[in-house]
Amino acid sequence: MITPSIRTIRDCRLEEAGRTWDAVRVPRSVGLDALAILGGRSGAVLEDPLSAALYWFIAPGDATEWDVAGTRVLHEDTHLVIPPDRRTYGPGPHWRICPATEAWTTDATALQAALEDAARPQRGQVQ
To answer: Per the domain annotation, does 1 fall within a domain?
Structure first.
């Protein structure tokens, strides 16, 4: 059964993960570094300033074995507030990288490597 998206405030919609994508929630501090590492290899990236998090979209089931510190994968039975396709600002959810018409997803292996690199302490830094 396909669940229709539910409209929320400010033209956003609530969508269920696990159907056409899973979402990877990343703390903003690590996510910004991972975004720089990925560069043009990144698909759509959603920012939620209220929870200080970035979200990447990957193919369903591609991150079931992940153990990357600070991340959380949204699978079936979890939902995400999705802003209009071109909203790149605002106090609520907005796009860091707008979704492409044909695909939103980032390669899960590339994302995992970028997140691991971004989460690694910098050389010479006191831990």
So the answer is: no
Of 26, 35, 33, 21, which Cα lies nearest the Cα of 71? 26
Helix (H, G, I), strand (E, B), or coil: what is residue 58?
strand
Residue 31's nearest CA partner among 46, 13, 10 is: 46
Report yes or no on 125 lying in a domain: no
Q: Taking the model in full, what pTM does it have? A: 0.86
- Asked if residue 18 belongs to a domain, the reply is yes
CA angle 60, 30, 37 (to 5 degrees): 80
CA-closest candidate to residue 34, choices 82, 25, 5: 25
Q: Which two tokens stand for residue 117?
A: 């690199």
For 98, the domain range is 13-119
Nearest partner of 3 among 88, 93, 76, 107, judged by Cα: 76
Q: For residue range 55-99, what is the model confidence (pLDDT) as tens digits?
A: 999 999 998 888 887 899 999 989 999 999 889 988 889 999 999
The answer to whether 54 touches 46, Cβ cutoff 8 Å, is yes
